[in-house]
Amino acid sequence: MVKVFIFNGSLNRNSTTDYLIKNFLNKLKQNSDIELSTYYLKNKEISNCIGCSRCFQNKECVLDDKDCFDKVRAEMLDSDIIIIGTPIYANNVTGYCKTFIDRISSWCHIFKLIGKRGVIITTTSNSGLDEVNNYLYKVMSYLGLADIEVISHQLNKDNINRTLDEIDYISSKLINNIKNNEKLKFSKLSEESFERLKEFYLSENANINEKKYWEETGMITCESLDKIIYERR
Ligand SMILES: Cc1cc2nc3c(=O)[nH]c(=O)nc-3n(C[C@H](O)[C@H](O)[C@H](O)COP(=O)(O)O)c2cc1C
């Protein structure tokens, strides 16, 4: 069973991003003889982070009582593939997408999503794709996601059939990697962040709760993310 978590940053009922995501999921199903289960997060109320920093101290988020975002985090932790889709608004991710990312940003200090694969799906009329794809690639890398793939569509320029072909290609590659138990590939950004954070958690200034997590998971003594995965195999 392969579990897929999807977040769509568009609140538009007639969403192009949604259309591409659904195509991607259909292709995943077609290209796979493995059973797939999906959790699709869209149009759900997500509260804006209030900056209390409790999450960085490994404490419960005070907003979870209000919007049950703890259930969303649990779904993500239980998944094999994480898809983040968003339209471009004012050359950036949508506010809704940023709100979602802020609520999991403490995970960027501890590579909480290590062991999972990431897919970025972005749509725009003309502009902003590079900035947004680079940003989401960085966020996914810092979360510990591997084999990150990017699917983008520019409404005023790209041929939709070509984008759908790209979706077909990437979905079958992803499924083959999973089926063949291919080793996860981390981005350079992931490994650089690992080196930087490890140095910090070995220092006097380290946040005690995050340091504890690094110690308990054994990351503190590992050379790289690549080695962690190698040892876990
Ligand atoms: C508020 C808003 C801001 C937008 N900003 C940009 C932009 O900066 N550059 C651009 O090329 N398209 C922009 N667009 C167009 C959307 O990115 C494009 O229509 C996208 O495919 C919408 O995705 P959706 O249908 O999934 O919501 C904007 C659209 C809206 C509603």
TrEMBL record:
Pfam families: FMN_red. Keywords: Flavoprotein, FMN. One of its GO terms (molecular function) is oxidoreductase activity. Gene3D superfamilies: 3.40.50.360. The keyword Flavoprotein applies. Residues 2-149 form the NADPH-dependent FMN reductase-like domain. InterPro entries: Flavoprotein-like_sf, FMN_Rdtase-like_dom, ISF_SsuE-like. Signal peptide: none annotated. It comes from the Bacteria. The keyword Magnesium does not apply. This is Flavodoxin family protein. It comes from Faecalibacillus intestinalis.
